[in-house]
Each structure stands twice: as C-alpha cells, then as structure tokens.
C-alpha cells in the first residue's frame, strides 16, 4: 500500500498557498526573511507530486549548499512517507547539478579543489617574471569566468598568466570550480532538445545570490520547462564579492515580464523586537522599489541586548559564560531592566554564535572549551586542506577515480616527497598512454613514492565505499606514519560528519560555507552550540543568536586591499539578526559598528557592559586563566 501522505497545503497562509498553486510558467516569490519561502518551495514540490501527478524525475530544485539540499531531501522524504518516492528527483547546488550533467555527457569529469587550483596558479606565477601572487591570479581568473569583466584590459602580464593557467588546466584534463559551470552551459546549450535532460519543473532557492553564469544556466535549463519557481530576497543578497548581483530579480522580471510575482509578508520566525532592530539597518530603498513589509506573527518577546566588553577576550568569555548560564538552568539575568529568572528549557543546540570572519572563531572556541560547552564550527577551515591534507584528499580522490591524475600528483608530491620532475613525467606518461599506475614500466614502478601509492591503494580500495570516512582517514594516516597534527585533527573531525567517503570528498571539493563542520565535546551528538559566519548562517534559524563583535572595522569589514561594499555589509548584518527567533544579543569589544546607530535606541537594552571580575572563588578560575 502507498504510504500515508499529508495535504501539501496544510499549515500555509493564503499568500503561501497562492505561491504553491500558481500555474504561471514563471513565478518569483520575493519576500523577507522568515516568511516561509523555503517552506513554500518544499510544499510546492509536494503539491506537484501529490496533486498534479508530476513525476519526481521531472523536478529539479537548486539550493545554495549541499547541506541545504540534504535537509530538503529529508524533509520531502518525511512528508511523502518514504525515501523511495523521491527517486529520480534532482536536488542540489549548481555545482553538483552541473557535475552530474557533465558526467552524463562526457563521462568522467575531474574538478580540482581550491588548494589544487592554487598550486597550479603558483606554478604559473613562478614561471613568470614580476610579482603576481597566485591568489591574485585566481581571483582574476574567477572574475573573468564569472562574467565580472574588468572595465579595462588587464595588464599584459596578468593576461598572460590567465592564459597559461587555463592552458595548464586543459593539459591536465581538469576543470576548476568556475569552469564546471561554464563548461556545462556550453555543452548543454549545444545539445538537441531530445538529448537534454528535461528540467520540467525548475525551482531555485536563494535566487538573490545568483551570479551571471548561474543566471545563464537557469535560462538554459528553463528553455523547455513547464514551470520555473524562483524564490529569494534581494535584501539578503550577500555574495556580491563573488560576482552575485543583488539586482538579478529585477533583471529577471524585466527580461521575463510575464513572471507572476508573489510576495509573502508575514514573518513567522522572529519576535517583533528582533524585526524592529533588524529592518532599520538595511540600505535605503531605491527609487520605485515597493516598501518593505515584514509583519511579525510572533508574540512580543525579549528586547534585543547590546553588550560591550573591554576587549575581545572578555567578549569571548562573556559568550561562554552566558551560554553556560542559559543552558545551565534557573539563573538570574541581570539587565538594566532589572533581574529576572530564566527557564530551563534551552539546549546548547538552540544557540548560535555568528561572526563576520572565520578567524574570529578561535578565541571563542578556546573559551567554550574551557567551560566544557560542546560546539560545532561550520565553515571552510582555511587550514583544513593545506599541503599534506591535500595529499590525503588526493589519495582518496585518486582511489575513487584512477583517471584523476591531478589528485595522484597531489598525493605523490605532498605525502611521499616525489620530486616534481618525476611526478611531471609520470603524469605525462599516464595521460598520453592512457595506462594505469599498475601498467607502468618496472623502473617507474620501483620508485618509492609510486610503490607506496600502489600498496596503499590495494589496502584501501576494498574498504573505500564501505568504511566511515573518519575511520578511513585515521587508518590512512596511521598507514603512512603521519602524526596527527592539529591540521589532521580538523580533517578527522570534519570527516566525522559524513557517513560515506564519496560524500565527504564531495563536500571537501564542492563544499560551500555551510557544508563542512567540525565539533568539540558532545558535538557529535547533536546538542552543541553552533558557530559560523554570517554568510554561513543564511537560510537558518536559531532560538538564541549572538552576533559576535559587531564593531567598527568588523562590520563593515576593513580588510587590506578590499573596500567594503557598505550596502552589502548592511544586508549581511540584517541576515545575521534575522536568524534569531527568540533572543538576539549583539556584542562589541571595540568601538561599535556604525550600523548600530540606525537601531532605535528604545529597541535596545544597552548598558550591559561585561567586565570580567578578578577570580574570587576557585570555580570561576578556569574562565579567566586563559
Ligand atoms: P530565509 O529568508 O531566512 O531563508 P524563509 O523565508 O525561507 O527565510 P523559512 O525558513 O521557510 O523562511 O521559514 C521560517 C520559519 O517560519 C520556519 O520555522 C517555518 O517553519 C515557519 N513558517 C513558515 N510559514 C509558516 C506558516 N504558514 N505557519 C507557521 N509557521 C510557518
Ligand atoms: Mg529560506
């Protein structure tokens, strides 16, 4: 018998129902945070399947992260009563969808990970005179590939470096991250209608953060679609620095004037107090833009708090202490509004601490650890894949795909000290003859590094698809006699969040902000405080949200060689604040961010200054002797 299913329209408001059932070919749901856009998208998929008889294989949903895709899948499976009923449906990021399309057309496709791209870029810049940095080269390459063409022609040396870099990718037969989308667009647009995978019903979440190539891909995919459903919020566009254009909604509406626009205006997530603080920080409306309407559906709650600390360390201590107090049970909260008691219902996983940059996590982590508070840090750790880590990744990617020579190269060079010349000649031979590593001549096979890779491959191949990634990584390090440094500790901790090696490798290569995590303490059980950047928190919600160090120089961010886009930084602050459901705490350890001046003073509980007192009793010692 068919599993029981629920009514896909149950629990939706009128605006949301209208969006779910809209029959127009193109639908744009443009609405503020917490208005149920993502919920509406999920309901629309259910509606298409249950009420319209659409086959799952005719549905494609694009999400911003792999993790969001996995969650959507889970939610749908639950609603439909079984995973089987999702069979054939495509849910994923642009990159994962493009990878699968391209593999369908061209067989094996190897996409190199960021660190590998950097090492290729370094080879190029080293071979040229001048002082072009590899990072700068990659930034420029990415700009060109993402359609952010510079106004003037690049200087000759840069232009040459870009050409060389692209030639090198071609020589190795690999694609970089941006190529994956470009190449898919070109391959797909050249196909006959019959040969194309049909995108009968295309749904896109977080449309406001689409870049030029992604916009073109949507157009390409949508050519034969019966319906295109785009949802997002221009006020939450925060990826301009990566080539996204906050105006993509207005562009779409201009280019496709028949698009039916639906607005959702009820916010179900946050208390009225939180919304009253968040809305005023947004940039002023452009001329002709409709006014922002975001009505709080929730009952009145706590006022938003603003806490200052004399320095960053005391700020981090405050966060740890406050979280301990909130979860610890009945306790007194001292504010200028008086003293009140707090309930006991809060768990660690109800709390998030958001910061502007990853680097700010370290101090927080130290303080949380001291207090024994379990946490999960989500985000791309800059150290996660430095050199040796890339060698480990290279080994497993090579194991997965013996044609992936660039991964083989990373493994030979980073883990087994293979001289660059030998690695290069090996690679050349393998790619020109199409031989496998085993089929090499005896003297090449006798090379120490090659011998090791062959032996390890034999050892690990049978377990690759069965064992847990954390176990595989640990055993591999042991087998290579590599000591567990902090870097590998992070890699193992990240592996623990995945059930199988292929999905872990996929996250390492394609992972967006929200896809990779590592934890401390009881973190692997799910009750842990969440730490992540404002960017990484997009689309999520937490009962209690701390915004860490909302200070001058941090928001807007002052970084060397980069001018902050003030409007984008304002939207980022807005995204951060609107993650909070019940309680929002803003913190600053320096001069406050100028954006705070836009929050009406009457909305904020200020004067909560945190000054760590010298330790009097032994119990609090741990906090201060950092
Ligand atoms: P964001 O812009 O931050 O991505 P969103 O518009 O996608 O937000 P959702 O995450 O879909 O919003 O929903 C926010 C919260 O509101 C969720 O907890 C969701 O369950 C709840 N919600 C949405 N619609 C309703 C509704 N009609 N009744 C009750 N709760 C709702
Ligand atoms: Mg959403």
Task: Write up what this structure looks like.
By secondary structure, the protein is α/β, with parallel strands linked by helices. It is 42% helix and 13% strand. The chain contains 23 helices and 18 strands. The strands form 4 sheets. An 8-stranded mixed β-sheet has the order 14-13-15-12-16-17-9-18. Helix 14 crosses helix 21. The chain is globular, with a radius of gyration of 26 Å. The C terminus is likely disordered. It binds adenosine-5'-triphosphate and magnesium ion (MG). The site of adenosine-5'-triphosphate has 18 residues, from helix 2. Adenosine-5'-triphosphate (ATP) binds next to helix 2. Keywords: ATP-binding, DNA-binding, Helicase, Hydrolase, Isomerase, Nucleotide-binding. Belongs to the helicase family. UvrD subfamily. Its EC number is 5.6.2.4.
Describe, in short, the structure shown.
Helix content is 42%, strand content 13%.
Distance separating the two termini: 61 Å
What is the strand tally?
A: 18
| Beta-strand share of residues | 5-15%
What are the distinct ligands in this entry? adenosine-5'-triphosphate, magnesium ion
Mean pLDDT across all residues, rounded? 88
Number of helices: 23
Sequence stretches where pLDDT stays below 50 over 5 or more residues: 618-626
> So what's the oligomer here?
single chain
Q: Main beta sheet: strand number and arrangement? A: 8 strands, mixed
* Residues in helices, as a percent range: 40-55%
Q: How are the strands of the largest sheet arranged?
A: 14-13-15-12-16-17-9-18
Q: What radius of gyration results from the CA coordinates?
A: 26 Å
Q: Name the structural class.
A: alpha/beta
Shape call: globular
């Amino acid at each position: 018998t068919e599993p029981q299913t629920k009514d896909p329209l149950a629990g939706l408001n009128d605006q949301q129902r209208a969006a779910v059932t809209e029959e127009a070919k193109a639908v744009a749901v443009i609405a503020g945070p917490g208005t149920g856009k993502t919920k509406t998208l999920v309901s629309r998929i259910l509606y298409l399947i249950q009420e319209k008889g659409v086959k799952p294989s005719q549905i494609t949903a694009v999400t911003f992260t792999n993790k969001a895709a996995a969650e959507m899948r889970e939610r749908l499976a639950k609603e439909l009563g079984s995973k089987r009923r999702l069979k054939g449906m495509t849910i994923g990021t642009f990159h994962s969808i493009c990878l699968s399309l391209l593999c369908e057309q061209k067989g094996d496709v190897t996409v190199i990970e960021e660190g590998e791209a950097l090492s290729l870029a370094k080879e190029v810049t080293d071979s040229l005179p001048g002082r072009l940095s590899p990072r700068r080269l990659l930034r420029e390459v990415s700009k060109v590939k993402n359609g952010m063409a510079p106004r003037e022609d690049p200087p000759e040396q840069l232009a040459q470096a870009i050409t060389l870099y692209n030639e090198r990718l071609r020589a190795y037969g690999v694609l970089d991250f941006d190529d994956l989308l470009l190449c898919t667009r070109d391959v797909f647009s050249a196909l006959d209608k019959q040969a194309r995978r049909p995108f009968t019903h295309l749904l896109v979440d977080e449309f406001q953060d689409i870049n030029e190539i992604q916009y073109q891909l949507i157009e390409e995919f949508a050519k034969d679609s019966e319906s295109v459903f785009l949802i997002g919020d221009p006020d939450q566009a925060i990826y301009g620095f990566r080539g996204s254009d906050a105006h993509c909604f207005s562009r779409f509406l201009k280019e496709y004037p028949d698009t039916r626009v639906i607005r959702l205006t009820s916010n179900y997530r946050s208390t009225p107090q939180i919304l009253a603080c968040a809305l005023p920080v947004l940039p002023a409306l452009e001329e002709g833009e409709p006014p922002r309407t975001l009505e709080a559906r929730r009952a009145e709650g706590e006022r938003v708090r603003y806490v200052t600390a004399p320095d960053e360390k005391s700020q981090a201590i405050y966060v740890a202490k406050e979280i301990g107090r909130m979860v610890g049970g009945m306790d007194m909260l001292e504010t200028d509004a008086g003293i009140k008691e707090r309930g006991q219902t809060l768990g660690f996983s109800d709390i998030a601490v958001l910061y502007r940059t990853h680097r700010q996590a370290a101090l927080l982590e130290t303080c949380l650890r001291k207090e024994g508070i379990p946490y999960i840090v989500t985000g791309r750790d800059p150290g996660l894949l430095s050199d040796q880590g890339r060698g480990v990744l290279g080994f497993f990617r090579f194991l997965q795909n013996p044609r992936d020579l660039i991964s083989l190269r990373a493994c030979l060079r980073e883990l087994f000290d293979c001289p660059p010349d030998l690695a290069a000649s090996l690679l050349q031979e393998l790619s020109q003859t199409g031989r496998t590593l085993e089929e090499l001549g005896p003297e090449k096979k006798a090379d120490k590094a090659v011998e090791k890779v062959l032996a390890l491959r034999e050892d690990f191949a049978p377990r690759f698809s069965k064992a847990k990634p954390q176990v595989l990584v640990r055993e591999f390090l042991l087998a290579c006699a590599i000591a567990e440094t902090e870097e590998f500790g992070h890699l193992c901790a990240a592996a623990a969040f995945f059930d199988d090696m292929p999905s872990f490798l996929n996250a390492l290569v394609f992972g967006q902000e929200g896809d990779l995590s590592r934890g401390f303490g009881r973190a692997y059980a799910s009750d842990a405080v969440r730490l992540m950047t404002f960017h990484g928190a997009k689309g999520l919600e937490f009962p209690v949200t701390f915004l860490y160090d909302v200070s001058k120089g941090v928001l807007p961010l002052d970084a060397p060689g980069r001018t902050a886009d003030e409007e984008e930084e304002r939207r980022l602050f807005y995204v951060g604040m609107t993650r909070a459901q019940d309680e929002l705490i803003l913190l600053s350890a320096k001069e406050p961010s100028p954006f705070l001046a836009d929050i009406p003073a009457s909305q904020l509980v200020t004067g909560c200054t945190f000054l760590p007192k010298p330790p009097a009793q032994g119990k609090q010692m741990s906090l201060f002797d950092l």
